[in-house]
Amino acid sequence: QQQVKQSPQSLIVQKGGISIINCAYENTAFDYFPWYQQFPGKGPALLIAIRPDVSEKKEGRFTISFNKSAKQFSLHIMDSQPGDSATYFCAALEYGNKLVFGAGTILRVKS
Amino acid sequence: DTEVTQTPKHLVMGMTNKKSLKCEQHMGHRAMYWYKQKAKKPPELMFVYSYEKLSINESVPSRFSPECPNSSLLNLHLHALQPEDSALYLCASSRQAGSSYNEQFFGPGTRLTVL
After folding, report:
1. Closest partner residue to B45 among A49, A95, A99, by Cβ?
2. What residue of A is the nearest CA neighbor of B46?
3. Which of A49, A53, A93, B2 has the greatest CB tally within 10 Å of its CB?
4. What is the pLDDT of residue A39?
5. What b-and-e string marks burial along B55-85, b requiring 16 or more CB atoms within 10 Å of the CB?
6. Residue A30: closest C-alpha in chain B
7. Phi and psi at residue B102, in whole multiples of 5°?
8. Strands A56-59 and A45-50
9. Inter-chain residue contact A46 with B48, CB threshold 8 Å
10. Of residues B50, B55, B100, nearest to A31 (C-beta)
11. Using one digit for the tens of pLDDT, what is the confidence trace for B23-36?
């Protein structure tokens, strides 16, 4: 059973455009929601994270929007650049230990 | 310094070999993790160590044996692996386990191939 559902599976965006990746969860025990960026052959890198008592968090070009009642959260990448091309994973932390990942979104930014 | 290091970067082993993967962090973190990642899939948790004690084993086969010699080091001992165990093995660390807002930082991984 997939505890964190992520969409879309892949995404192509023009340079300068906005990339949007969505995630949904069911388990109300999740209390921390990070996003990771992974380049081929590398480990996932923590990009940005949000707590469920915050509706939005922005760091540079990256913004997380969080809707607690709908149990949904999303990543927005503003002014997308070719260097942003990577796989993005949303995740949710359960009981402070277990990080549960979404299936991943392969982002390609066309120049 | 938010760096987690892993050695080796690549490992090829036969099904009868015994090998070990190593992970190190110097951030003062007291929780360390092993994940397995197959191609085009998300990482899957294998083990969690909290204050050098094994706290979570996600029903991993006994051919994988973790060890935490001290708070900075984490090993994964491999024995009698199967070809389907070929994957990227990721180590991660966090300030402590069992707390909210527990940021986990990942190493670059060891690419394991079992022949």
Report:
1. A99
2. A98
3. A93
4. 96
5. ebeeebeeebebebeebbebbbebeebeeeb
6. B100
7. -90, 90
8. unpaired
9. no
10. B100
11. 999 999 999 999 99
